[in-house]
Write a structure and sequence with these properties.
It is a single chain. The chain has 4 helices and 9 strands. With 190 residues, the chain is α+β, with helices and mostly antiparallel strands. It has a single domain, classed as tt1808, chain A (Alpha-Beta Complex). The strands form 2 sheets. Strands 3, 4, 5, 6, 7, 8 and 9 form a 7-stranded mixed sheet that branches. A hairpin with a 5-residue loop joins strand 7 and strand 8. Helix 2 crosses helix 4. The longest helix has 19 residues. The relative contact order is 0.16.
Length: 190
């Protein structure tokens, strides 16, 4: 199921700005509220719809990441993607996003449909935990990040991860008409 505009607007929980109301935006807003109000994430450390720009065979693409969480120095530490469908089907794409995010790789990533979730170790690609209880509190995330060992990708690793990521993006939105599909996280030629 693709994300579609509902023709209205709603107030973004993180920024207070008016944003387009879509079939999935309400779920994203609930997730942001959970992160801040229940799990202690500072609002100012969470950025929504962060562009991940990449190039494949000379063509530029962009995929919006639902949420990226940053540390005090502005370094990304956690990528969160929202999905509609089986969470497990999106784990590999989420790991790639965590490896490719600008300023990354991040140590951890999360894929969720707001009813289920997989917490992922980006370095190994392993699933650490399942369920919405797998979403770490802010304090736990900071502790996990401090204990992690993340190294920048080599150019060869980045190229391979980009190709895998692009393949998953193509599967996600490869069959829709880019003019009629309003999926915020779809790939876009730039």
């Amino acid at each position: 199921m693709h994300e579609s505009s509902l023709g209205g607007t709603l107030r973004d929980y993180l920024t207070g700005e008016e944003i387009d109301e879509t079939t999935f935006e309400e779920f994203r807003q609930l997730l942001a509220r959970l992160l801040v109000e229940e799990l202690g994430y500072p609002k100012e450390r969470i950025r929504a719809k962060v562009p991940l720009k990449y190039c494949v065979e000379g063509e530029d693409f962009e995929r919006l990441l639902d949420y990226v969480v940053y540390d005090e120095q502005g370094k990304p530490i956690f990528v969160i993607l929202f999905c509609a469908g089986d969470v497990g089907s999106f784990e590999r794409e989420t790991v790639c996003a965590g490896r490719l995010v600008e300023g990354g790789p991040v140590p951890y990533a999360l894929i969720t449909d707001t009813m289920d979730a997989s917490l992922l170790d980006v370095k190994t690609g392993d699933v650490i935990a399942h369920s919405m209880q797998a979403v770490p509190s802010w304090d736990k995330l900071v502790e996990m990040v401090a204990a992690s060992d993340v190294n920048p990708l080599t150019e060869e690793q980045r190229e391979k991860q980009t190709r895998v990521f692009h393949t998953y993006c193509g599967l996600l939105c490869g069959s829709c008409d880019s003019d009629s599909c309003s999926l915020p996280s779809k790939q876009k030629k730039k």
